[in-house]
Amino acid sequence: MYQGGSSSVSYMDLSAKAQVEQWRTVNGWIEKRFSAHRIPDAALAHVESSVCAEWAPQSCLFFGFGDDGKGNADPILTGHIFVTYLSEKYPNEKSRFVDFYPPPPDPARFDFYRPKMKMRDGAADRPQGFYVKALLPGDAEGGIGMTHKALSPADIRKLSPWGWGPEGFQFLAIHEGYVQRLTDKKAPAFVLGDYAIAPYGGNEYYSAPILGAVRGRLEIGITNVRDNIPKYAPSHLA
Questions:
Q1: pLDDT value at residue 8
Q2: So where are the chain's domains?
Q3: In terms of Cα–Cα distance, which of 19, 23, 15, 22 is closest to 58?
Q4: For the whole prediction, is pTM greater than 0.90?
């Protein structure tokens, strides 16, 4: 259970310079593991010289990878890259239902279903390349999900098309101190409500990923979007 604690801002550097530098570090890993999706040096240089010149408090820098066929980023690919990153970097307990590219079922092993993941209906298209979104003030101060403590993920979806989606995985990659906040139970587990999961296939997309902690490890799990479970905190980006 979330224990509460001092401001999460003190555990992460929201300056533009710090975030660009961490993106360079993460990009070194991307070059080794997903070389086709390496961020060009020119893109990093451009964002450093342009976006960073007009940086606002509580801003976070994200990147949309791939193409969804409509000129937008592919949030399934983006999620896959960064779930892989977090799984390799941190001791973790990952739900088998958080699988962006599951292999086909194997009936010979009585294995008849696979989870399905997509962006939920009404979620904003994610742009390709770098983009900036801001934390809600309450989330920046107390931890992601503290702004709307009384709402379920389904309620949050009605408030904004910009819920947490691939941004959640990237946030932990760029703000490493926040992972420690989660595992120390100093920040609540938060819901990535812009993703929709059908755990057993079909069209029953009633779940969403969560990022939290279990037994001192990073938890990459799921929760039911209709439920308001106190330890799972939904929110959206400003």
A1: 43
A2: 8-233
A3: 15
A4: yes
